[in-house]
Amino acid sequence: TQFGSGFRIALRDLEIRGAGSVLSGKQHGHMEAVGYDMYVKLLNEAIAEQKGETIEEKIEDCHIDLPIKACIPESYIKSTSQRIDAYKSISMIRNSADQTDVLDEFIDRYGTVPDDVYNLTNVALMRSRAANVKITKISLRQDNKQNKIVFSTDSPSINQITALASVYGNLVKFEHTKYPNFNIQADQNIDNIINIVNQALDILEENK
Asked: What are 103-155's pLDDT values in tens digits?
C-alpha cells in the first residue's frame, strides 16, 4: 500500500531538514528532535490520512534534543511497514513496563535488540517521565566551554529546586527568565549525560 502524498512530502521535508531517511534508519548517527518527535507526528498524520480520519493536532509534551544515536536500522527490521509499526510501538512507551514489553516483543520477532533501538526506547521513556514532571524540553548546550543539560519547565516547584540543589550543589543553576529552566553541568560522555538526566528525573518525580 502506498502512503498518501502528504506522507511523501513530509518525508522529503525531513530529508531536507537533515534528519536523513527515517524509514531506513539513516539519521546521520544522532537522535534529534526532528528525527523522532516530528517523525512520529508525521507518521500518525499519514496513517490517519490513509484511514480517512480527521487529523488532530497533537501537542508534544516534551522534546528531547540530546546527541543520542537512536533509530531502527533497516538491517534490524527490513520491512518498511513493520519498521513503521515498531516506531509507533516505541512512541507509545509511557513507563518501564511498557519499555520491557516492547523490547521483549522485538526480541521475539527480530532477535537481539541493537543499541540504537534500545536507545530509542530509552528516549521514549525519558520523554514520558519528563512530561509527567512538567519538563517541556531536555537539551544540551555549551556555555563557556562547559556542557550543560538544560531542563526547560513552565512550573518549577520549590520542593524540586531544593531537592536538586541538595544533590548537585553548585553544578545546578536555575534560570528564571522568559523561558524558565534549570541546568546541570556535565562532561561530554553521552552515557554520563543520560545518567544525569535519569537521576534528575528520579529527583523530580520524588518531589513533584
From this structure: 999 999 999 999 999 999 999 999 999 999 999 999 998 887 889 999 998 77
- Count how many residues are written for the chain: 208
Q: Beta strands 181-186 and 135-143: pairing type? A: unpaired
pTM: 0.71
Q: Could you say which residues of the chain have pLDDT below 50?
A: 1-34, 58-59
C-alpha cell read off for 98: 511498557
Give the Cα separation of 160 and 115 in Å (integer): 32
Residue whose C-alpha is closest to residue 22's, from 67, 85, 87: 87
Cβ(26)–Cβ(52) below 8 Å: no
Q: Which residues touch 104 (CB under 8 Å, ≥6 apart)?
A: none
- Residues 60, 118, 191, 95, CA torsion sign: positive
